[in-house]
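Protein in question passed on here:
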Amino acid sequence: MTHPVSPNTVLANALHHAEDVLTPRILATPPQRIVLVVGTQINGAPHIGTSLVQSLAFAMAARLRDRFGIPTEVLFSALDNAPYELTTDPVSGHRYQRAYAQALGHEALTDLVTALYQPLFTALSRHLGIPHRVETYSQQQAGEHFRRTWLRLLPRLDAARWWLAPSTGTPHVRVPCPQPGCGWAEKDAERTRVQLTDREAAQVAAVCLHHGPYQATIAPAEGAYLDLATLYRNLVKELALSNPHGTLHVMVKGGDWVFGSHLVDEALQAVGLIRGQLPARLFCPQVVTDTGAKLSKSLIREGRASLPEGAAGWMLDTRQWPGTVAEYAEQLLAMTDTLLSDPRHFFRSYSAAEIGRMMTAPAPRSVPAP
């Protein structure tokens, strides 16, 4: 595979290898294990940007294991709280959403993740010898540790709210309507109110699109579905991971998250964390169009952008890859080898056409079929 021509940068010039960016955190408090956490909205078939970040999470896990001799694994967060339906209440003008979790249900979502993501994970995991596990947001929000973290955060939320919602100061909490078959929630949470009733519970009052006002309780081991807007969700998740017990969690994200993570880090410090407690982060190369914008299947699907010149249909829907899942994994791993061969190649963006060129170049390795 022909290597790209990449310019030098301040960060790349300070490193010999891309994984060096994580060395200070590993040496400061040597962990017993490292978990690379990569999340993806479950809103249809994955595109090339999603596959790139996921394959880099596995490849980086292998490099960290081999270099530091520390067991590593990949945790895939399947964000099934992504909007499935959106509508506007004609009476109040408020926007409402119904997420995949409420629209499809647990069984259908499990089948969706198994069909769209598990085969690639299995191929990457087997080839690199990196264990992995999958957790949906529905499972995460139902976990006692996550819910206790949210309840403990509520008295301190005022210190972080402008970092989580700089335009309004109101971080969005969505508790879907509990009526059977409903599941709609006010998208921007204008009429949603949260009150901590004691250390072990909170009361949420909201207004449903179809059923009017309702109330719900959030407790550590029971209660309503707790859906949080993106920055708010990341704050709670990373607070829950801030007491490591020998585990270093590395947040693996696409390059478009660089700006949003600044707000999350400021919010974490506002509620009491110090710099050394903030999660380690790894920002992966971003796939962009010829205008420099992130390659967006949503914009192309809505007709607001066109497929970039040199890009192929499989880049928006990886199911259209002209080959097997094993061959797709083979090409991804060959490309990750290239990107990780020099920090200059890793800490940058790539046009969709350049990614397409690297993905279709001959791959020197073989991956077992899942």
Observations:
- DSSP finds 15 helices and 15 strands in the chain.
- Residues 1-79+124-142+285-370 form one domain.
